[in-house]
Amino acid sequence: MAVNKDKNSYTMIFAVIMVLVVGTLLAGFSSGLKPMIKANEKFEKQQNILYAMGVNDNQGTGDVAFITTDRVADAFKTYIKEQLIIEGPTASQNDKAYLIDVKKEGAKAKKAGYQRKLPLFIGEKDGEKLYIMPVRGKGLWDAIWGFVAVDKTMTVQGVYFDHKGETPGLGAEIKQRYFMDDFIGEKLLEGSTYKGIKVAKGNNDPKNLIKDDYEVDALAGATITGDGVSAMLKKDIAMYVPYFKTLNN
Fold first, then answer.
1. Which residues, at least 6 apart from 141, have a Cβ–Cβ distance to it below 8 Å?
2. pTM for the full model?
3. What is the pLDDT of residues 145-170, one digit of tens each?
4. Is position 164 within any domain?
5. Distances (CA, A) of 198 to 180, 181, 208
6. Can you tell me the distance from the alpha carbon of 147 to that of 149, in angstroms, rounded to the nearest whole number?
7. What CA–CA distance (Å, rounded) separates 10 from 242?
8. 217: left (phi over 0), alpha (psi -120 to 50) or beta
9. In a domain, 232, yes or no
10. Core vs surface per residue 216-226: b (16+ CB within 10 A) or e
11. Is residue 54 in some structural domain?
């Protein structure tokens, strides 16, 4: 008996079968690619951490250049000497600290009684010990995040910032070297008081030569993104201050 392909029921059955077949194929591809995606996410996080502490392939005043993926795992082992997870007053060594999802930890911390886990990476470069902290906040359109490297006095030695959807040429400039390099040398503490760093309009220091004013020059036309960076640093790095006070006692 011939099938009447002009009937609506035939069209619907055919469409359902195609959806099931395509869905199964996509699920198979996704499952097969998952290990590669996870590996790439790990490499990217390691590249960002290393970049913040000044381990990168930058040349002159050109664009941001990360350690390449074929070298990043070895570089991470070489430069990152210790990984800690800070929970309240306790800091414990854990080589999987880099796997902590800062976004998820922030959400969990909203629940009463939950003790947030803070990853901290201790690196060494040119004989100097550096402490690298992840930060996460909100820009104009979506999430912004990064890593901040400091010495034990909480003086910034390097940063890396990124974003999900800031405006190209404006807020998206937070991931450009000319903006990130301004943070190097900036102080976060005034005595024992945590001040943070403000991305400020009209701070009268366009070349960023003053390093004890707790400010860097704002990006033109990106006030809300800049405010987001300021708030992100103020909020997230403040959580690490008790640990740094133990280093300086």
1. 164, 165, 166, 167, 171
2. 0.83
3. 999 999 999 999 999 999 999 999 99
4. yes
5. 13, 15, 12
6. 7
7. 68
8. beta
9. yes
10. bbbbeebeebb
11. yes
